[in-house]
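Marked as duplicate of an earlier ticket. Keeping the data here for the record.
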Amino acid sequence: MSARLALLLRYVGLVILVLAIVLIIARWKLPMRDHRSRGVLDVLRALWAGWRERRKDIRELSEDLAALRGKTALLVGPEDKSLRVMRWKLEGLRCGVVSARTGREAVAIAARENPDMVIADALLPDMSAVDLYESLGRHETPVAFVGVQSRQWDELHRLGRNVVCVGKPFDPDELAAAIGYLLR
C-alpha cells in the first residue's frame, strides 16, 4: 500500500511541475502589458508616503483650527441651520461669536466690534455678497461666503485672496480650517 501511495504522490508532483512550467512559459510568451507588478518594498514605500501625507494634513488642520482660538467672528445671515452649526463649531473652538441677520446690520456691527473674521450667507435679503464685502471696507479681514451659487463663484473669487467661497451643504470643520489658514 505504501508503494502505491509513493507512486501516486510522484505522479501528482510531476503533474504540478509540468503545470508550473506551462504557466511560466505562458507568462513569458503572453506578458500583461498594462499591469506592472509591485514588490513588497514598493507597497511599503507607498504606505509610508501615504501615512506621512495624512500626518501632514492632520498637523496643518490642527494649526488652522488653533489659529481661530480667541478670535471674534461675525456671522451674517438669516437664522438657519448652517450658520447655527457654524456658531457651535466656533464656540467649541473658543471663539467669540457676534451675529447679524442682514447686511446693513452686519456692517454696523463690524464697525463697532471689529471682528477678526466674517462668515456670511451669500444670499442676504438686503444686499449682495459683493456689496457686503465692499461695505465692510476691511479687505485684510478673512470673509467666508456660505451657500455660493455657481453664477456668483467667479465674481466672489475676484474680490481678493481673503475670500473663501463654500456651497451648501458644507463641512464646518473645513470652513473653520480655511478661515484659520487665512488668519495664519
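See parent ticket for discussion. DSSP finds seven helices and five strands in the chain.
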